[in-house]
Structures are given as structure tokens and as C-alpha cells.
Amino acid sequence: MKVLVVGGGGREHALCWKLAQSPLLTKLWCAPGNAGIASVAECVAIGAEDVAALVAFATARRVDLVVVGPEGPLVKGLADACLAAGLRVFGPSAAAAELEGSKGFMKDVVAEAGIPTAWYQRFTDLDQAKAFVRAKGAPIVVKTDGLAAGKGVVVAMTEDEALAAIDAMMGAKVFGAAGDELVIEEFLDGEEASLFALSDGTTALFMGAAQDHKRVGDGDTGPNTGGMGAYSPAPVVTPALEAEAMERLILPAIRRMAEIGRPYAGVLFAGLMITKDGPKLLEFNVRFGDPECQVLMARLKSDLLPILLAAAEGRLAEVAPQWSDDVALVVVMAAEGYPGSYKKNTVIRGLDAAGAVDGVTVLHAGTAFGAGGEVLATGGRVLGVTATGASVGEARQRAYAAIDRLDWPEGFCRKDIAWRAMAREG
């Protein structure tokens, strides 16, 4: 099979790395890819959101399956364009991708499906949004309705913080048109986890759970990022909780999307809060998480290609993924200054030495080749140092040992990834 993966981040490197292991694969392309992906796939200089060029490329090369990594192209209708051109595609239609494209739409679907979640209200008027915050008090959560690269969420612990977030998002438009509408919702207390399911429109299949670390600093301090590290399995997602989440959160959403004429096919990523009243839904995303995808692919024993193909062809009931008992853990190396303005085009050395540590794979999230073939850091989140081990402790020790071998003075990472799981291990 010939496969095209769309995207150029850590998630796409993880998908390409796993797909490259498939005996069914004859050719793998990635558009646009990055310096790390180039070691397992042929990178194509087409932007991830250039729908027309991607479809033209896939058609000309007779690609058997297009695998869409990021949410942006899905919201723009890449899956629809592929299907219209007669291409098989893994990823939801634009109508279904609105589950991530509009947080207000997602909350409405969740409410209609009776899924346990935070109370919420949608606002297009700044003064009304502020009045709602003053009436409800803090802590409270303020979100942009539209896509904001994972950063359009403020968990406000004070009223003033919430009002400032409304001014920034809707007033100053720091996230552009994403802030034209806001969703303001209840603050949920508990432990967060990420649960992944595949759907072909009718069947839903559990595809692993992980815990992400959103804050930039050790001890979960500082501003939210796209994710500074993750590990899987998540001890908090017990088999009983997994079954409850699939039954009460995932399946009702799949059914409701079908009822409203937007059947959902692809991966559904449920952000969960494990509260004292059980799991509640924080949000749905329409793609694998980044960096959660990195640890899920490290633990997946099965061939990924037939699983994605089954989802694309409506045959998910025929497949059953097999998972390793090992723990997988990823530590994200980011560029100095991230998530604010950060240094670009600094040279990363020691990648081979880091990758030589037992159980470690260094996945690239924001890299490119320099003129002399050197690897340059081009993004905010740059590397995902991914390790497996028999325990959280072993996987973590291997990941940080690999990081110690990297020579990249302009990079930094959190030193406490998986602290909750480490505390459980004692």
C-alpha cells in the first residue's frame, strides 16, 4: 500500500514511524514532514492545509490511504476533498471535525447526547460574557470557540483573571477570529486523562489512554502549552473507568453525530476529568493528541496500517489492537522562550547518541535540515524523546538519560514528567 501522512509535527513522526514498520506498506510520503520524519518517509513540500495540492498529489501518485494528522486540514475539509476524488482517507469530514473546530458546537452535541460535562454558556457579546463571570464567580474556565493551537483556554482561578481572558480573546483578538465567540464553563476539579477511540461512523474502538502535561513548568506551573510530555497507560484510567468512559462519553457522541447527519469517522480524543462523581468530558478533539500519539504508537504491538484502513472503510468491528504491557513516556524538548516567542534555527547535536539509549526513539516535532545537513530547531516544541520500560520509573530514567546526551543549549524540558504515576509507584 502507498500511504500519505499529512502534517509535520511529533504526532506525524510517531504515525510515520509506526506505519513504516507495516509489511503492507510499499511507499510512505509525508507532507510537509520534518527532519526526523525524513528518516522513515519521503517528505513532500506541500503545506498541511493546502487541500487542493494534497489531493492532486495523492491522486497523481495513486495513494491508497491518506492519513490526516492535525485538526486544521480536517476542519478545512481535506477528508471531504479526498473522498470526492475517490481517495480513501483516515480522518473525519469537515462537518464532523466541527467537534474541535467549534467548542460551542461540541458542547451543544455533548449536552444533547447527555454526556457528563461541565455546565457552560456561549457568548458573542463581551459585556454579557463578563456579566456571566461576575454572576458565577471563580474558578471558571474561558475558551475561544475556534481553533487556537491548543492555547485558547484559560483556567481562571480569580474573577479578574477570567475578565482579563475575555478582554484578550474577544477584545484584543489575541487568537484572531477564534475569539469571535467564547465558551465559558464550570471549573472541574480532579485528575485529567486523555482517552482515544477510533470510529468508522457506527463502531467505536478503544485506542489507549494517556496523561499529558499541559503547563510549561515543573509542578504544573506556568502557562498552558501544546503539551510538555505524556505517558501511557494512565494508571487513573482503570479497566472499569475505561468501560464507563466508552459507554457514557464516546458511544453517545458517535450516536448523536450520526443522528444529526454528521457521522464521525476517524480518531476521537476525549479529554477527561476524573472527578469524585466519575469521568466528565472536558472536550473532544478530532485527531490523535500530540504528545500522546507518541506514547500510544510506542505501546501499540499491532500493525497500525490495517487498523486505520478498517476505520476508513467502515470495518472497525473486524480489528482488535494489541498493546504492550510496557509503559511509554515522552519528554518534550522545547525552544527557549516557549510558549512565548522563542529562538529559531538553533542547531541540535547529539541526536544519534540520544537515540542509542535502550528503549528510546527521538521523534521530531519542529525541525528542518540546515544548508549543511545539520538539524535545526524550527518550532516551539521541537523534539519528543520517547522511551519504553517495564515501569514508569524505567521509561522515565531512559528518556532523561537520552536528553542528557543531546547537545542543544537553547532547548529545555520539564524534569518531572509522570510525577503522578511515580507517586503511585512509590
Write a concise synopsis of the structure shown.
The chain is built from 14 helices and 23 strands.
Describe it.
The chain has helices at 10-19, 51-60, 71-75, 78-84, 94-101, 103-112, 126-136, 159-171, 239-259, 292-299, 304-312, 351-355, 392-405, 419-425, and strands at 2-7, 27-32, 42-43, 65-68, 89-90, 120-123, 140-144, 153-156, 182-186, 191-200, 204-212, 215-217, 221-224, 229-232, 265-275, 278-285, 327-335, 346-348, 360-364, 367-369, 375-377, 381-389, 411-412. It has 426 residues and is of the alpha+beta class. The protein folds into four domains: 2-91, Rossmann fold; 119-186, Dna Ligase, domain 1 (2-Layer Sandwich), CATH 3.30.1490.20; 191-318, ATP-grasp fold, B domain (D-amino Acid Aminotransferase, Chain A, domain 1, 2-Layer Sandwich), CATH 3.30.470; 327-425, Phosphoribosylglycinamide synthetase, C-terminal domain (Glycinamide Ribonucleotide Synthetase, Chain A, domain 4, Alpha-Beta Complex). The strands form five sheets. Strands 10, 11, 14, 15, 16, 17, 19, 22 and 23 form a nine-stranded antiparallel beta sheet that branches. A five-stranded parallel beta sheet has the order 3-2-1-4-5, with helices on both faces. The protein is globular and about 55 Å long. The N and C termini lie far apart (46 Å).
